[in-house]
Amino acid sequence: MIRTLLLLAALMVAPAAHAQNFTTAAEVKPILQATRGNWIALREWQGEDLVYFTHLESWRCGLSQVMFSVNGGPLQDWPMDPCQEGTAQPNAMATDRLPYTRLPPGSVARVDVMVVYDDGTADSATFERAAVLMP
Prior knowledge:
This protein has one domain (21-132). Helices cover 27% and strands 29% of the residues. It has 4 helices and 7 strands. A hairpin with a 2-residue loop joins strand 1 (41-45) and strand 2 (48-52). It starts with a helix and ends with a helix. The model is unreliable at 3-19 (pLDDT under 50). It comes from Gemmobacter denitrificans. This is Protease inhibitor Inh. Keywords: Signal. Residues 1-19 form the signal peptide.
């Protein structure tokens, strides 16, 4: 009987003990490493190349910085809204936030991206146009 009560108590506590908000490098890094191929997307739209950072925006909690370069140019900062700590959805993007940058049509051949986690470590990836171009 006591063993059953202890097991039930452990099961009731387990979800709270394992809950993750995905707001730290330890929680976000494995996800971003596993989904590296989805960090950006490219879309040709109304005479422009749009480079989307939606995936990184969605996992921005746990990141301290995102930088990118186009066609081997200088790295530039991708500014992100702060993590919405203390809310039910800390990674939610603001409804008025545009998760892309506009570039001249057909100008993007390659995008290099570097993410810096809040623990000081970094990961990077290179994306060729054909690999990230949305239909």
